[in-house]
Amino acid sequence: MAVTRAEQRAATRRALLAEGRRRFSADGYHDVVLAEVARAVGVTKGAAYHHFESKAGLFRAVVAEVQRELGERVAESAERYDDPWERLRAGCRTFLAAGSDPAVRRILLVDAPTALGWDEWRAMDEESSARHLGEALEALVEAGVIIEQPVEPLARLLSGAMNEAALWLARVTDPEAQARTEQALDRLLNGLRA
């Protein structure tokens, strides 16, 4: 069965994304060379530029992919619960645990804010996962579980705190750090309850 050009292009794009993700995760944004990514998957540098225009373009696509996957993981974890409060807790815990994933830690939390710029990184984060946090908090305010207050600043405060905690958890070797961080998160969240 003959492979169409569209299928070849899609396969090339997927291969470049996978190799880019592997390298960005292992080496960091600044040490990745687009020509080496292309060579590793058996295509020309021109093919890589055709698909992504630049190393930054490849990185942006990798960030979007990792963010989408993380957002899906958080949503799946939250959806296991019927109670909105438990949904919030489960989603937050899943996000914190994701910091141990090298791709999430290096690509999303360390390199993306600097390589893409804070505004673009925040916009991508909003699109993939921060929006879900805001929606969860809004539902809890509407249900009277959380004290009535503006949700947007609350979501940003909680998101920033969890990003920092995920980065810290990714760097510590203490086996109790995750459990202690989850306890601290629960105390923080309980302070929001009506």
TrEMBL record:
Residue ranges of every copy of the HTH tetR-type domain listed in the record: 10-70
Annotation: DNA-binding region: 33-52
Tagged with keyword Transcription: yes
A Pfam family of this chain: TetR_N
Superkingdom of origin: Bacteria
Keywords: DNA-binding, Transcription, Transcription regulation
InterPro entries recorded: Homeodomain-like_sf, HTH-type_TetR-like_transc_reg, HTH_TetR, Rv0078-like_C, Tet_transcr_reg_TetR-rel_C_sf
Molecular function as annotated in GO: DNA-binding transcription factor activity; transcription cis-regulatory region binding
Keyword Transferase among UniProt keywords: no
SUPFAM superfamilies associated with the record: Homeodomain-like, Tetracyclin repressor-like, C-terminal domain
Protein name: TetR/AcrR family transcriptional regulator
Species, as recorded: Streptomyces liliifuscus
